[in-house]
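chain below, 304 aa
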Amino acid sequence: MTAAPLIANGIPKSGTYFLDSIVRTTGHWQRTGLHMAKPHSVIRHEDGSTETIPRPALDVIPTIAAGTYTNAHMSWDAEIEASLLANKVKHVLIYRDPRDTIVSMMRWQTYNPNFVTSDAERQRQTELQLGFANDRDRIRHFILLMRWNDYSDYSPWLKSPACHAVRFEDIYREITSGEAEMPTVRRLYDYLEVTLQPEELRACLHNSVTSSGEKSKIGAWRQFFGAEELALLEYPQFKQSMSALGYRLHSPAITKTETYRNEEGALLLREYWDTSHPDCPKHMRDLNPRPTVYIRAEPVSEEQ
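prediction:
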């Protein structure tokens, strides 16, 4: 039986091409090469170059053939939802902690050669590599660019009858750990109506066109985000994105925060972490294996 037409959709830098790799691994779909968005679509050629064409999602959906799939960055829309149902198109959305999308975008534009498909992108990558002292400075740059993005318009897909939504953190953790049960993966395969082949799934890791190759993909923001970076994210659109997708800007493992000045007069933020809480980072639990309080101090910028 030929597989139903399929859309592999994702919030930008949430694992769209990781999902693409999973779909290809099943062996039931052929990629169309098209990447859909609401106002237009993009063709990605074999040589990595791209071409924008004036075909909105509503025009593309009825033309997706059985046994083929199309990638997308496509937020929810009532007409698109109705078209997916009417044309019996399977639709999977992958979403992710918006803080990690910032890290992923920084790594993609700064280090991945596949980002460069034009002179403008080559110049952009060069500026990112040479114009900043380190990745934490680059992260602040990307926070200022991306905190305007409101991904809450994707959130209706999470409960839509025309979508199967998957959290990146859940599916990536299951595949990398090699655990036997893999409930998230199994639900996805049940939705796609294909047989799960667990041994083939690890081939999906780190081999997509947009992959950074970094192995730390879940909670990667913790490597770069201190008090100053988190303060920059106190922005209405970003906070709305976090909430709508089911994430918290501030960890529930933090029991108290306070600011104070050290002996040099610098303003610091002190966080009190409950190390018995499952949301507490592993390195804090390792330093304090018994249920206790781990106190983290970070400098606070006074120029905001």
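Residues 6-96+151-204 form one domain. DSSP finds twelve helices and ten strands in the chain.
thats it, cya
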